[in-house]
Design brief:
Length: about 110
């Protein structure tokens, strides 16, 4: 597993206050998911110890948006664009750029 490579990733359990705020925010978002209709791209590392990947999966499944995509990265932690191996960061950027390209209109 390459998660150990990420030297800046927070590897401990979240602090109590952080956990409480995350729970409150998650509950607030969950109550409003039926109103989410804009395109969504959700990216999550499988080895994230800060936010459980199941939270992002639930967000994806419950959002009413018809244009949504969920990508889960094997062996990646919470900060997908910092501290991960270069090939992981390049893959994440590539996925983001591809999604944006699919959603941007060409302009003259």
């Amino acid at each position: 597993m390459q998660v150990a490579y990420n030297v800046i990733a927070y590897k401990d359990k979240p602090r109590l206050r952080t956990a409480v705020e995350m729970l409150k925010t998650t509950q607030e978002i969950e109550h409003k998911l039926d109103k989410v209709s804009l395109p969504m791209l959700i990216l999550h590392g499988e080895c994230d110890v800060v936010t459980d990947p199941s939270v992002s999966k639930a967000l994806y499944e419950k959002a009413s948006s018809s244009d949504k995509k969920f990508i889960q990265y094997k062996d990646a932690a919470h900060s997908l664009l910092e501290g991960e191996p270069d090939d992981m960061i390049e893959r994440v950027f590539s996925d983001i750029i591809s999604w944006l390209d699919e959603h941007c209109e060409e302009r003259p």
